[in-house]
Amino acid sequence: MRLDKLVKATVDALGEIKARDIVVLDVRRMTALFDKVIVASGDSTRQNRALANNVQEKLKALGATVYGVEGGDPGEWVLVDLGAVVVHIMQPAIRQHYNLEELWGGEAKAPKRRMAGGAR
User: Any residues with CB less than 8 A from the CB of 71 and at least 6 apart, and which?
Assistant: First the structure.
């Protein structure tokens, strides 16, 4: 399956179960192990497991291979390995702590601050 189709199908599967803050990172310049990292948030361990299951089902139905799933039992952070794409489904506190977006070359999210005198 082409990479762009794999990414789109994965993002669509996450969206169906109401994943939040879905981010797709291109990591081809950082590793030869995979091409894209997708990070998404779920509000509970139950939702995280449902998100991971939906990704697996939808991608298998399209002929993609699911190489492995980790963390499904606790469910706070579930990883789905699709070969060229690695999906991280995390609860918000876990996601904030590990900050994978910055680790994989994205920009760190700085808190918004007000400047003196009302200027922004």
Answer: 77, 78, 79
Q: What is the β-pairing status of strands 20-26 and 36-41? A: antiparallel
Residues 93, 72: Cα–Cα separation, whole Å:
17
Task: Supply the pTM of this predicted model.
Answer: 0.85
Task: Compute the distance between CA of residue 31 and CA of residue 105 in angstroms, rounded to an integer.
Answer: 11
Asked if 78 and 48 touch (Cβ cutoff 8 Å), the reply is yes
Q: Whole-angstrom Cα distance, residue 35 to residue 22? A: 16
**SS3 state of residue 74:** coil
Residue type, 22: I
Q: Has residue 120 got a pLDDT over 80?
A: no
Q: Which of 8, 17, 88 is nearest to 47 (CA)?
A: 17
**Tokens read off for 21:** 């803050």
